[in-house]
């Protein structure tokens, strides 16, 4: 399943998915990333023990944003976020 985002994908979502009109570097090709690949990547980042707090915040924020932009994955992402936030006691949502 390829992500079919609205025009308001997010800060860099259009570039990641090759949907923006932003110019590419010479010889650069737009990426084709599925919704599943995107969610899996962020889960992988969050599962790393060595990730720092700022990296964790970025990954959690990205997942939260994607939960509204990927309706097919919304429930899965919400469960993942809940599990992540309850498994690590020093994580707080403000």
Describe the fold and architecture.
This protein has about 90 residues and is mainly alpha-helical. The protein has a domain at about 35-85. Helices cover about 50% and strands about 0% of the residues. The protein is built from 4 helices and no strands. The chain has helices spanning about 15, 35-45, 55-70, 75-85. The protein is globular. The protein starts with 12 loop residues before the first helix and ends in a 7-residue tail after the last helix. About 15% of the residues are buried. Mean pLDDT is about 75; it is low at about 1-10.
**Helical residues, percent:** 40-55%
The number of distinct β-strands equals: 0
Radius of gyration, in angstroms, nearest whole number: 14 Å
- The secondary structure category is mainly alpha
Q: What portion of residues belong to β-strands?
A: under 5%
- Order of helix and strand elements from N to C terminus: HHHH
Describe the largest sheet: none
Average pLDDT: 75
Low-confidence stretches: 1-9
Number of helices: 4
Distance between the termini: 33 Å
| Global shape | globular
Task: Output the keywords.
single chain, 94 residues, mainly alpha, 51% helix, globular
């Amino acid at each position: 399943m390829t992500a079919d985002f609205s025009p308001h994908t997010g800060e860099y979502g259009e570039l990641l998915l090759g949907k923006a009109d932003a110019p590419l570097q010479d010889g650069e090709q737009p990426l084709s990333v599925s919704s599943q690949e995107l969610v899996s990547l962020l889960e992988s980042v969050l599962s790393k023990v060595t990730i720092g707090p700022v990296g964790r915040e970025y990954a959690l924020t990205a997942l939260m944003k994607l939960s509204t932009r990927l309706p097919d994955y919304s429930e899965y992402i919400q469960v993942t976020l809940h599990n992540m936030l309850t498994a690590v006691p020093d994580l707080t949502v403000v």
